[in-house]
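Encode chain A's predicted structure.
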Amino acid sequence: MLDIQPGLHVVLSETQGAAVTRHVHSLRGIHAHKDASNNWEWPLQDGLGSVREVVDNSVGVLESRNYDPFGTGFGNTGTSQTGYGFTGEQTDGTGFLYLRNRFMSPIIGQFISQDFLESLNRYAYVSGNPINFVDLNGLQNFCPDPVTGLMTLCDAPPVTVIAPPLPPITWIPNPGTIPPGVPTVGVPITITPKPTQTPTAPPTVGPTLGPTPTATVTAVPTAPTATATPQPTGTSAPQPAPQPTMCGVPTPVVTATQTQKPCNSQSFSAWWLSLPDQQPIHIDPIDFAWENSIARNSWDTFPRNFPKRIDIPGSKALGLRYDTIDADGASWKTCRLIDAKHQTGNYPNSDADYIYQSGSDLWRELSRYKRAVDLTPAVGLEIRTNSLQAVPFWIAALQSANFTYNVNGFVEVYFGP
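Encoded structure for chain A:
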């Protein structure tokens, strides 16, 4: 059970079978545990909040710990009594330190994902100064007060990471048209291929799943239209303007003008958190650890242990196998659903999961995601992959399910555990 009130959310209880362990937190962090036998145990912390010893009610030492500067333990004695350790934070089963928005690896002394704030080293932990600073939220440095021992923010200026609310949105649940006079938001795009490239025809597209539901918003101005640079006139045929590349991957060929749905972080978050948890279907520990870190515990996503089930009635009748979809995570900053794809082979290959033509398993999965985006507050689907080489494949797969790339379908590369 989590306490997610404003501030740093903390674990209040943990349940394993019939055993329940309860935690008590003070202003300096973890304060006490009460196990299933109603025995109290008391972690003793140093100046950085790291648990150095755990004692019982008789002040008998149950265990003691030592840490190197970045939190790797050594010279420990006794039996481990608590998952709380370095700087008073929890360590997961893979050895990573959970700091709410990101995980830190004590072995390499760095975060395993980037800080979204601008900095010289976006993987650095406490600016390389673990002797004097701690990081309680995975984003900022905190300093222990020399008098009270309480942690105070030592970054200036402080950074607010909660997105501000957008104007209220009235969702039209059934397919229809935008009422007259209602403004829309988004950036209509027109992308042309690079002059030296021959565009590849998109894969066969499956059956149309119906018009995209629309949104009514209040007093939001229409964003400007991005257009290509005009070509000079001459005797030769005009050449399209060169387009940027993404980390060496050619920009996909997309010719579309589409208005993106608005994102209201508050309503989207409330909807997402109301969905039921869904036990993951695979048991591969590497895949699960990667998805848990990248899709459900990144800086912009909700810290969840399991995917969420989204009901999308009518999908089975359209040949999409199920009337539900299990999203690995969701970004509250962008209102996007997230599907994590951990690459273990080449793309595409003979596995039916990685063939995106109409009627394949992957096409049906992405088509259900498309219906979820059409019929819910989600504004798009973001594929998170650990392979740069897989990006063109996932772009084509999204397009096969009627997503428009960079409008309601996105691909990001994340390197995690």
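Residues 156-257 have pLDDT under 50 and may be disordered.
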